[in-house]
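>> received
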Amino acid sequence: MKSRLMRVSSQSFRWSAATRAQRRVVIAAGLGWMLDAFDVMLYSIILASLMSAFGMSKSTAGLLNALTLVASAIGGILFGLLADRFGRRPMLSLSILVYSVFTAACGLSTTIPALAVCRFLLGLGMGGEWNTGATLVAETWPTALRGRALGIVQSSWAVGYALSALVAGLILVHFSWRYAFFVGILPAIAVLWIRREVPEPEVFLQARSATTPRSSLRAYWKPLAILTAANTCGMFAWWGLFTWIPAYLVLDGAHGGRGFSLMNLTGFLVALNLVGMLPGYLLFGVIADRFGRRLSFVVYLSAAAASVALFASARQPVAIFLSACVSAFFGTGFFTGSGIIASEIFPTSIRATALGISYNLARGLSALAPFTIGVLAERHGLAAAFTVSAVAFALAAFFGLFLPETSRAALDIA
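>> returned
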């Protein structure tokens, strides 16, 4: 076993050297996560337009996004249970189909309650996509390369976010906000390719046919609780910050914003994702494979806490951009670590369920973040409200100290 791990550890990451199944799984999971981000972040990017169209307050707008996060917690657990029973590939396909259809349905909404229903339903698919895709990758790639493979998948969120900013910006210049939501149906096309070309992981097929007893979540309650707590704090910080950054930038100074134009906002968000989020995701996998999962996780979260404070105090456009990029690098890059650590702690028979709980239950518990920031912003301004995100990132780093180190973990079947 030791010699096998040494051989694996000496591998270098080369895309051309990966098997056909490994490449397709990364593409499928990355595509699903990218399109998930595209659909979900449309709401944040056109939030100012929605507030005007429906006459929504900041607290109501934040509450609608909180509803989506609650639904994602339900969807993550539900799809995780189904994926452990029926397979990773069919549940990945179904989750993409759900969030695509109901994102498009948001464009048909004429009332706030109708919009809320659509946001809830798309949240179910949003929650299911992450843990099914991450599980697919974790069970297909070897231990020494798993971090970088999951980093590639996680980085696709930044690409999806940037695409949504670009598409929404172009559409809002010429058309109604409704057309931005209609574009959200496009990810459904990916389902056809996934169902035809992406295989089920061998480790999952072996686990399903094994006669040994299935593992119980109760046996893993401690690391599950710690990881869920860290994820909850980190996601509270992330959703509280990045849900409100677009509105923060375009609102005028009298309303606590920075007065960016719509086109400046589009360019800012595209650059933020490609310069900040994308390398943050990718480099976490490289750093974690070299220096360890836990250390990388804690350092990223600690740096995120410090950088958010700098962003909230920035006044000049250059300072706002640079501090936002640093916040995006560390504040989103830690999500890669969450997926790596979770996939290596839990055995195959409960892996998708455990990932669904540790990630999506945390996302549901963090659902109050957009609402909390919105309420605080009405009283103290958005810049001051962002301090809550900095504190939440620091708490996530604290919980991360108690996670096990999984750098050498081989995936268990039982």
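>> Residues 143-174 form the longest helix (32 residues).
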